[in-house]
Every structure is written in structure tokens, then in C-alpha cells.
Amino acid sequence: MPRSLLPAASAVLLALTVLNAPPAHATAADPSPVAVTVNARAALATVPETGIGANHAIWDTNLGTDAVADSLKAAGVKLLRYPGGSYSDIYHWETHTAPGGYVAPNTDFDTFMRGVRRTGAQAMVTANYGTGTAAEAAAWVRQANVTKGYGVKYWEIGNENYGNGHYGTAWEADDHADKSPAEYARHVVAYADAMKAVDPTIKIGAVLTTPANWPDAITGEGDDGSWNKVVLSAAGSKIDFVILHWYPGALDRTGHVPDMIRLTREQITRYAGAGADRIGIAMTEFNTGSSSNGTNTQPGALAAADAYATLLANGVFTVDWWNVHNGIGTVTEVEGHTDYGDFGLLSSGTCTADNSVCEPALNTPFAPYYALQMVSRFARPGDQFVKAATDQPKVTAHAARRPNGDLAVMLVNTSSDTSYPVTIGYAGYRPASGAPTVLTHTNGATAITTTTSGTATAQTLPPLSLTTLVLRPATSQAGLPGAPGQPKATNVTDQAATITWPAASPGSRPIAKYEIHRQNGAITEQLGETPGTSYTVGNLTPGTRYTVNVIARDAGGGLSWSSPPLTFTTGTPATSSCSVRLTNQTDWASGYVGSIDITNRGAALNGWTLSFAWPRPWQSLGSGWGAGWTETGSQVKVVNDPASPTLATGATVTVGYVGNYSGPNVLPAVFTLNGTVCRTE
């Protein structure tokens, strides 16, 4: 969490690597129209009440003031986190002190809560793990919810506690002699028991590492696995949500989000025990982390809007910007405007050390403020995200369907010099004719403008802009069936899965059937239909991740909203003439050593080739041994050593490689031996 207001070093920025300069933008005199696809049948997560959040810090002299609270309310902020990043692990709420750090006047807990209430938000409080105790945290719960009646629901146990030196780098205060994830997990259990004894309704969060961000996947000395594995295995039954932080350091990393959240969810399912599906995911610190590319100018705002929408669409229940105020940093010129290197939403009104450059007046909104405001107007609590995509890398799209039948589409144009015309096609939705409501924020603008212009299918996006269309449906939405409930998958094999779901409530006409739709990018393919609430899908591809929605159709042809999404992954054949076991032997959060055991369960082979593909474009082969390794694009081939070409029936050969990655590391899952799909063990 960057802190320009203080001499303390940023925890996250210590872990950031050198950032690449942005690529030069190509100029197109007459750019081709960008094709945008919006698919209302391909539903994603529902927008949570707490989705748009921000961090408050006790060293911010403007914490909780009416002016700040009113600005945050206008931006649509619905959750505020306290007392401020790494300060959480040195802060003692009863004395309102943080030994070793600065505490500003009028920043105590009551002041914070007054600001929270004026903002119309909920609070998230981080209990002191590093230098505190479970008893101290329980006393804070009592003060907040019993004595004061504040009703604080969300409580974190510590902040970035993996940064206590256990993995070699230390920024987080931790007085415990044992700094292992096992020790942290033991205390999470103790904190949860003590705090819930005071108020059983609160939700407890535990700190995890973010996939592909240091020190994720690293196994420390003496540990029984990575931080996440150890913490979830020991404390999973006691927690209600997990905590991620993300400072991507570049403005084009939202493509990492679906795998980042999916891998976190898979870890929760694998390690947290029975009922793990109750555990939510919170991104309690987020910032682009890229002062060179525009921390508080328009490129950063565009990245923020894209990331907030993507994270929330993938089921994160809050995304909390670091920070409300932060202070001036490295001053640069970005896209024609001064970037103050400030990680805040609002100006602190501070100057450089030599007073050569000063920020705008206190509380002047920076560009990311308008990004949060745009997201809050685009996707409101209770709306349902649906899939949207474009055929132009410089333009991204998001869409959300509203309970009243309206549809909102947010378009992000990251080109600095090209106004892109867009043509928008809709599946599962028919917009009304006439000009829609259009909300726009452009480079350097100090407000979001609202007009009625263009059509539902044709708009022009200014350079470096956020544009949201709000559309009305062409026909009345009355009398339609309700959406089916959350689907589940059972009996998943390499080629089939049985999908079941709670029945939809009928509207004015009885429900005739249910349709099962698979998401394939921004389009869907119907996998089948049935009058019941269960369907077995066949002809699936081994080792493939599928996301499906169920839609109810009534006797008059009326369609319900889509069910919540279901994601499952097919396996590999239960029986095969070969089997493969891939083991991640050691990991350093940007690469790993993989070991592959290949067992021949068929006739003896005189010469063999193992083939597989990297699941993601950010993965590659570093080196390989035990055989001949070649890589062509995403395809990898492993050919037997010429000196030992045979592989007898029942024999196993082991080969190894170094795999590099710069995003969430989804391991290869499907292997073929001489063209036959093997069973993956």
C-alpha cells in the first residue's frame, strides 16, 4: 500500500518489478468499426452491495471529514477499510496509537465511523495481528458492535502478514517469534473464536497471497506447502472470506483476473474443508501500481474501471482502492496532463520536497475517482454482469443487466489518438429504438457528462475515454419467470457432466423448459434443454473448463434471466493406455520446476512423444531435461532420448522442465502420448 505521506516504504511497491514503458499507439485515419458483442444469456456474478470500496488511513488528516465523505458518496463508494494497510499491524485502537508510525489528529475509530455513515457505506476493520492479541481484537468488536452499535460486519485478521520476513522480505510488523503461515493460521483461529464470542454475526477474513504475485506458491523453510495451503487447511473452518491485494504494475493485466480468482476459489475448495463455498473473496487493496503509466491521470482511470468491473464480474465482493488520500510522488507528464504519482482518489494538496510542483487544491478528484464513479453508475448493487467482448484490443467492454430490464454497457477506449466507432450486437436482449442515455468521461475531464445520443447499436468512443450506455428493453418485462437457482455439476468425467439447479419461479405462464447455455467468449452455445431441473451434457472435451448458465422458458416463449454461472472442469479418461502425473516441485512466483511421470499402460513402445499445450499465453518453456523438448507457440513436445527409445508395458519415465509465467499459473492438464489422451493422475 503506497504511502507518499509518510517516510515508511510501500509494502507492495517493494515487490513491484521495473515497469515497461507503454507501447506507442498507432494512428488510424479512418479506423474500422469495432464490433462489440453483448450476451445477456451469458450471466456472470451479481453486483454486491459492497462492491466499490476504498481505503482510509489513520495518518490521513482528512480521514472522515464531511467533505471527504460527501465526495466518496458521490463516487458510489460502499465500503471503507480502516485503519490503513500495514499500519493495521501496529495500531492499537483503545489508545489510538501506532508505535513507530504517525497518527494524525481526529482519525480515531469514532471519527472513521461517522465518515462511514455519512458516506452511506459499510466498514471493514483490520484487527492488529502483528503486535496485537485476540483479546484486543475481541474488545474492539465489543466496542464497535455492542457498546457503540456500529454493526461492523467485516473484520480482517492482519494485513499482508506474509511480508513479515518469513519469505526473505520484511515490511509487515510481526512480534511473533514464529512467523510461519502455520502460526498465522493458529492465531486466526484464536482471533475468530474470541471475536465471534462477542458478536457471532461478524465475518472474519484471513490474508492470502494473490496468484502469480510474490510470494504466492512459494513454500518456506519448514512449511507444509505454500502460505495459502497452510492457512486455508488450518483456519478454513473459522473464516468467512479471504483477502487478496493486487498492484499489477501495468495497465493491461485485467486478462489475469478470471484465472486469479478461479485459482483462489480452487484453493479454498481444496483446502478449507466442508462448506468452503461459503467463503467469499475480497480485494481489500487495489491500485494500478504504475506511477510511470499514470497513477492519477486518465490511463490509470481506464485501467481502474476495467479492473473493478472485471473483478466484480468474477465474484469478488469488494474492491478497495488504495487510497483516499496518499500524497505527491514522482511527477511526470502522462497523455498531456500532470501525473503527480499520487495513489489517492482525492488530492492531498501536497507539494514536492522543493515546492517546485504542487497538487491541485485539497480533495480535488483525480481521474481514478471518476472511474469509480462511472463503475457505480454502470453496475449498481443487484444488477447482474453479463458477458461482453470486442474485436479491438484497444477497446474493452462490460455489460450489466438491471432488475427492471434495463441494460448498461460500459466501453473503455485506451487509445490515446483514435476515436473508435463501435457497432454493438446483442444476444438475449432487444434494446428499445431511439437514442440511449450516454455517460462519458474523457481525458482531462473534471466530470462525467450525460447526454442522449447515437443508438443502442452505434456509438463513437473518444480517445482515452469511458463511455456507458443505459438501454431500455424493446418490450415489457412483466410476467416472465424468475431466474433458475445456482447450478451444480456432479458426475464430471472427461466427456460428460450432470448439471442440476433449483427450479425457477413461474411468472404469468407456466415454465415449459430449461435451456443450458455454455459461455464461449461473448457468445453462447446451447448444450441442451429439458422440462426438468437436471441435464447430463455429453461430447465435452477432456481437461477443459466450462462455464454454463441455465435459462427458463415459459409456455409463451418468455425467457427468464440467466442463472448464476457454474464453472467446472472436465477430467481425463478414467482408463487409458497411458497415465501422466505432473508435480510442481518448487515455485518462485514467476516460474517453477515441473516433474512429469509418464507411465505406459498399453503395449510396449519403441519411440514415444508426449504432447501438451500451455493453457495461457503468459506461460512458456524455460528448459527441459530427460528427453528432447521443443516449443512451438503454446504447443510443447517431449520426445524420447534416442539412446533409450523404448517404454515397456508398465514402465515409467520421468522428465522435467522449468516453466516460466507472468500471470496466474494454470498448470497443463491434458497430455497425449503418441496421440492418445492419457489419464492425468
UniProtKB/TrEMBL annotation:
Residues 571-681 form the CBM2 domain. CDD domains: FN3 (cd00063). Residues 483-573 form the Fibronectin type-III domain. The lineage of its organism: Bacteria, Bacillati, Actinomycetota, Actinomycetes, Streptosporangiales. PROSITE patterns: CBM2, FN3. Pfam families: CBM_2 (PF00553), fn3 (PF00041). InterPro entries: CBD2, CBM2/CBM3_carb-bd_dom_sf, CBM2_carb-bd_dom_sf, FN3_dom, FN3_sf, GH, Glyco_hydro_b, Ig-like_fold. Residues 1-26 form the signal peptide. It comes from Nonomuraea bangladeshensis. This is Cellulose binding domain-containing protein. Keywords: Carbohydrate metabolism, Glycosidase, Hydrolase, Polysaccharide degradation, Signal.
